[in-house]
TrEMBL record:
Protein name: histidine kinase
Residue range from the parent sequence: 329 to 588 of 588
Biological classification of the source: Bacteria, Bacillati, Bacillota, Clostridia, Eubacteriales
Record organism: Irregularibacter muris
Domain Histidine kinase: 41-259
Subcellular location: Cell membrane
Length: 260
């Protein structure tokens, strides 16, 4: 809209000026809609395992299942669904903590190599199960970086866990670290199934999954990459993804270093 101030000024001669306050509520509306979607998604994600648990518990307690083998199979499903619920709630709490305290490094800085040793120890059994080769390489000397160690662990585990999950048996997952200009660059690469080009823009959204059935089967919550993005943005870093279907995926993270 355009308002001609002269028109009003000529009628009200003693007015020396006009202040027009306009508020753009587009962003507010968008935030409100994201929040609404999130609540709806969380409710749906919680409901699915709860419905399944209730169904199996009802069947078992109704005494319809006589043989022990089937009972054990049902109990195993219940236990897996409880695990899924626990994982989902942990991820939701992490996201909410990251939103309220995005730069929670409390003056801490980290030394990457020893931290990566413990991360690899945690993740190695997953890789071994699929006979995936897991490697890391330091291409330059790596300085200490200001970072919350728990956030760093979570970021790397989420990305490595995905790389292993979406890489077939016998594949390769490798991580490279290098100092470049005033940033620490981390590349997490795999030669797995890749991500279709059209899915890449929405990849970091909460609960966005490329193949819903498949990731659910793998036990994913759909929140892993949203958490990673929050952690990276919390330290004013950047993350990007390059991928080719059937060839593999590279996540590149650039974390700013302190001025020397
Ligand atoms: P999930 O818990 O489902 O793995 P994420 O937020 O971690 O959720 O990832 C979102 C989606 O991105 C996944 O469902 C998967 O389809 C895709 N994805 C993430 N990492 C990779 C990867 N390294 N290779 C192929 N697809 C991936």
């Amino acid at each position: 809209i355009y308002i001609n101030p002269i028109k009003y000024l000529s009628k009200l001669e003693r007015v020396k000026g006009i202040i027009i306050i306009m508020q753009d509520v587009t962003e507010l509306r968008q935030l409100e809609s994201i929040r609404r979607d999130f609540v709806a998604n969380v409710s749906h994600e919680l409901k699915t395992p709860i419905t399944s648990i209730k169904g199996f518990v009802d069947t078992l307690s109704g005494g319809q299942v006589g043989d022990r083998k089937t009972q054990e199979r049902f109990l195993k499903i219940i236990s897996l669904e409880v695990e899924r619920l626990t994982h989902l709630i942990e991820d939701i709490l992490t996201l909410s903590h990251l939103e309220s305290k995005p730069q929670d490094n409390q003056g801490q800085s980290i030394l990457i190599p020893p931290l990566m040793e413990s991360i690899f120890q945690m993740i190695q059994p997953l890789a071994q199960k699929k006979e995936i080769e897991l490697r890391k390489e330091y291409l330059t000397p790596i300085p200490q970086i200001p970072f919350n160690p728990e956030y760093f662990k979570q970021m790397m585990i989420n990305l490595l866990d995905n790389a292993i999950k979406y890489t077939p048996h016998g594949g390769r997952v490798w991580v490279e670290f290098m100092k470049k200009d005033n940033a620490l660059v981390i590349k997490i690469q795999d030669n797995g199934i890749g991500i279709p080009r059209e899915d890449i823009p929405r990849l970091f959204e909460r609960f966005y999954r490329v193949d819903k059935g498949r990731t659910r089967e793998e036990g994913g919550t759909g929140l892993g990459l949203a958490i990673v993005k929050h952690i990276v943005q919390g330290v004013k870093g950047e993350i990007k993804v390059e991928s080719e279907r059937g060839k593999g995926t590279i996540f590149t993270i650039a974390l700013p270093l302190l001025e020397e």
